[in-house]
Amino acid sequence: MYTILLTDDEPIVTDSLSFIIDRNFPGQTTILKALSGSEAINFSRTHKIDIYFMDINMPGLNGLEAISEIKKINPSSVIIILSAFDRFQYAQEALALGAYRYLTKPVNQNILTQTIRNAMSMIDSFRGKLSSDIEIKEKLSFVSSIVESDFIFSSVFSKEDGKSLKSYLEYFKITEDSYFFFCIEFVALSSDKRYETYMKVRDLIASHSNAIIGPFMSGRIAVYIPFVKTADEISDSMKQREFIRHLYSAMSLKIQCKIRCGAGFIYSDLEKTLPAYNSALSALNVVPPDGGLDFAENVAIKQKPDGASVSRQEQRLISRVMAGDVPGTRNQTTIWLKELIDFEDSLDSVKSNVFRVLLNARMCASEAHKGYATKAIFNTSFALINNCSTYEEFSNYILPQITECASLLCESNNAKQNPVILRVKEYIEEHIATEISLETVADFVSVNPVYLSKLFKDETGENFIDFVTGLRLEKACALLVSSELSIKEISHKTGYSDQNYFSKLFRRKFNLTPTEYRNSRM
Fold first, then answer.
1. C-alpha span between 145 and 214 (Å, rounded)
2. What is the pLDDT of residues 473-487, one digit of tens each?
3. Does the structure show a pLDDT above 90 at 180?
4. Cα(127)–Cα(125) distance, rounded to whole angstroms?
5. 419-430 and 438-445 are packed helices; what angle lies between their axes, rounded to 10 degrees?
């Protein structure tokens, strides 16, 4: 059966064509009629049209314009122009747009019927190829699902080395250098719905990523998701969270049961597939029984800090000192010190680590200011640190010491930095609790806002708004850890008059509400 759309603004033409087609191809066609190009396009959106007959000169959207749109909607259709115009220009343009034949009125009936037969043959050929392609695709899909299952089993249960696992990735043409695991569990899914649900999930994930999807294992599905990792951990984390939340929302809409999901840490080493999978499993295990989504990072935050976490915070602190970022150093010192005290069981270990980090910071500062780190200062520092026993005492001593180091490095770095950008940063730091706009700051430094925006990006590698937001949220983190101010007070102190908006930004960056962040570090 072939569906044919006859398009002409003269009903007598469409009626005549319909009569000829019915007489020469009885029972083989379904005929539709349109009086304009716009109407033909609407039919294309609601019906699967095989063959079009199209006039060129029609009111509104003409035939050539209609062909262009129809080919976008239905590229496999066969379009035949039937027009009173016999100009070569029209014929040339119609054929260039994808028309099959250009016939002029009045057309010989034998030519018309032969043209229709040829068009039907073209449709048959396309359908046969499509059927063959579908069959091949189904066979390949079956084989691929077996290989996918084998990869997941090898990653999780066997002792395959990274080289062997890489051969699987080459088979699937996966070139991304990193990955993470995503575990999915269905709440109260009946056995008769398992296959249907599994296929829906496979199709959905495949439409979002070139992931490797495992079979049902212990009532859940494990998914290997390739990831392009960068040097920016925070950016990578936000990118992962955005992707997984979008995928989770899509699954929740598609699957008719509640879903529990956990996303693991991002890894680059294929030798670490088991811990990568286990991190996704640990995230899944904290999801409520009635459904939800969580991330391995959140689980790590909720637990007591481990040595790796404390080490990461220390590295971030030293990087802030070396960058000469005084506010960032102050904020990061507060976060690191709190984690260090929570992690260490021995007060002597805390003292030793505080002294070591301060020594490291002073060594960095001495590179910029020769003679700063004297032996006398070291001896005094050790004695003073040795007298500390509470968070407040450590904080009161180390904060001014370590920010002094950052300040010295800031002076050194400033000598190399654009003076306009230095004034901009100073203004932002001094006015962090007030409304800050690009226009206001540009006026302060007497430059054009558009020029300042480009200059700031070129000099710092960061957008103006992103820099301000990052500075505000860093200060908020420090206040949440070091003070008993309410969330509302902290939002005002960091320049946000709307507490809800502040909380939304905070959650977007850290995946925790301000209250959750504070509680996780108490």
1. 8
2. 988 888 888 788 889
3. yes
4. 5
5. 130
